[in-house]
Amino acid sequence: MRILTIVKQVPDSNATIKVKPDESGIDSAGLKLVPDPFDEFGIELAVQLREKRGDVEEIVALTVGPDKAAEALRVALAMGADKGMHLNDGAFDLTNELLLASIVAQAIKRDEAGFDLLLCGKYNIDLDSGAFGPALAEYLDIPHVGAVTGLDVSEDGKSFEARRRIEGAEEVVECGLPALLTIEKGLVEPRYPSLPNLMKAKKKPVDVLTSAELQTDESLQVATQFQSVAPPAPKPDCKFVEGEPEDMVKELVRLLREEAKVV
Amino acid sequence: MPNTQSPDFFDINSLLSEDERQVRDTVARFVDDRVLPIISDCFENEKFPMELATEMAELGLLGPTIQDFGCAGLNQVAYGLIMQELEQGDSGVRSFASVQSSLVMYPINRWGSDEQKQRWMPALAKAEAIGCFGLTEPDGGSDPGTMKTIAKKDGNDWILNGAKMWITNGSIADVSVVWANTDQGIRGFLVEKDTKGYTTRDIPHKFSLRASITSELFFDNCRIPDTNRLPTAEGLSSPLSCLTQARFGIAWGAIGAAMACYREASEFASERILFGKPLSHKQQVQVRLADMLRRITTGQLLALQLGRLKDEGRIHHSQVSLAKWNNVRMALDIARDARDLLGAGGISVECCPIRHAMNLESVITYEGTETIHQLIVGREITGVAAF
């Protein structure tokens, strides 16, 4: 079995995001970037599958992004991936998930041995879009199961049973491989890359692919158009209703009716 | 815009290699996830979080500069950054890693026999064995040359008698690197936990480093085979060079404590409204925050250059003294001032500055008091030892 795990480098969720004055994007100067935490579930799952099963031949980690994104790839390699693919070109617009999926699909098709299992986060915390995984599966014409919370791969490695939460219930999906899974929080707990493994990760092979090898489909450039980015509007001041409980309730209902207009 | 938040006002990040940055970020994440959620409780209840020892080992934080035995083989700047990040959590957690790495693994790796290394180094790196370092004695630590612990040769063995005090990890240690006077001068011995006549006692009622174990060690006619003597360690210079390693780490670690205090104080100052305005809008508060940032920035640059000198093999121990003195003093002053800025709430264990301030009272005393470091630098200037 060969597993491909896709990892995107995103701003750290603890970082304070500053918007550029012209609202064209976020200010990346000094911004701390980390491997996407949902994508890390995919890496961890791949490594755990190898630890549990005897038939995982290779785990490949793939990222799309600038030179700096190699850091995210290195974390994946330190966690246990065997080799990396780094799709690095200014033309690969990181805000256009459909375009990214088409580029990643081309890179995957170049790999002759092929992958049985493709893993990524259910969405990335930078865009919160979740389009990438399903779109990639479409481009590759393979099935996909989204937001997986439980997984059993069959002994022969040809099919799997995945569980996912739906409104008020759990759905169980049986499916053949190859397939793409997007991973929900809770399936696995990612390990920390140890410092010795981080150092060893530098020696693992990474193929770099650019627009010389991968075409950017112009028709997809209009698929997602990035207009502007703005910080959330500041919260309005709280209004405290004071007085006796009976009067407070009356006043609250009046405010909800007349000012907030919600009842 | 300069980064006043982490803080990294002079963009020291850009002076670090990718390796160094990635090591720092990995440890920072570990501290955020694993240390910070439990540390105030450990401090309050005087409990060493033993589970962190294993996790630190899995992460490769024990003996990280060593090339063999499954260790990471990092450079000295990366080691310093590990200490900085651990001490953003707590000085006690950093002390554990400092002692294991600089005071136990370092001497065994440097002066130990092959058998000693094979026996202890892999186990110490994995935290399957814990180590401690016995130099300071009940009668004082600043003049270790006058130590009263003695080892007398008896056939192929040594008979060890004496006591050591203020020993981090003492009672949980499987192996203790003990320094003793002999007829030939000071020698180092590996004393194993179950050696007959060897006992330990924890030092209770500490107001400082409460998340770290501090013990006394007693040696009553302990018979130590000569094969447990560090064969090439000779004289006081051996334990002192261990201290230089540990002090180097402390000079970095203190920055972490200061950064944590500064962040909490500046966040509080921007949120707390007093007389109709956030505290941070007041001149007096801005001056205090600016002064914290000035001192942290200076300490960061000092530590980085110290690390570069150490990596180039050009470091002098008096430079380590100046950095330990400067950075721990800086951190202690900032911790106290941040505690004050937080007002009444600042006395709670919920706020990190008071915990750091109390911890740093130990850090400024151990591994050479502030005065000792001033006198080491003074000796360098004048050529005269004024101890």
Q: How many distinct folded domains of chain B? A: 3
Count interface residues per chain for the largest interface: A-B, 19 and 28 residues
The structure class of chain A reads: alpha/beta
Could you name the ranges of chain A where pLDDT drops below 50 across 5 or more consecutive residues? Answer: none
Strand order across the biggest sheet of chain A? 9-8-7-10-6-1-4-5-11
- The parts of chain B where pLDDT drops under 50 for at least 5 residues are none
**Oligomer status:** heterodimer
Give the full name of the CATH homologous superfamily of the largest domain in chain B.
Butyryl-CoA Dehydrogenase, subunit A, domain 3
Kindly state the percentage of residues in helix of chain B: 40-55%
Describe the overall structure.
The complex is a heterodimer of chains A (263) and B (387). Chain A is built from 6 helices and 11 strands. Chain A is α/β, with parallel strands linked by helices. Chain A folds into 2 domains: 2-221, Rossmann fold; 233-263, no CATH class. In chain A, helix 2 (70-79) links the parallel strand 4 and strand 5. Chain B is α+β, with helices and mostly antiparallel strands and 387 residues long. Chain B contains 10 helices and 9 strands. The N and C termini of chain B lie far apart (46 Å). Classes of the chains: A alpha/beta (263), B alpha+beta (387). The A-B interface holds A 14, 16, 18, 29-30, 32, 34, 71, 74-75, 192-199, 202 and B 1, 3, 5, 8, 11, 13, 18-19, 21-23, 25-26, 29-30, 32, 58-61, 64, 70-74, 78, 82.
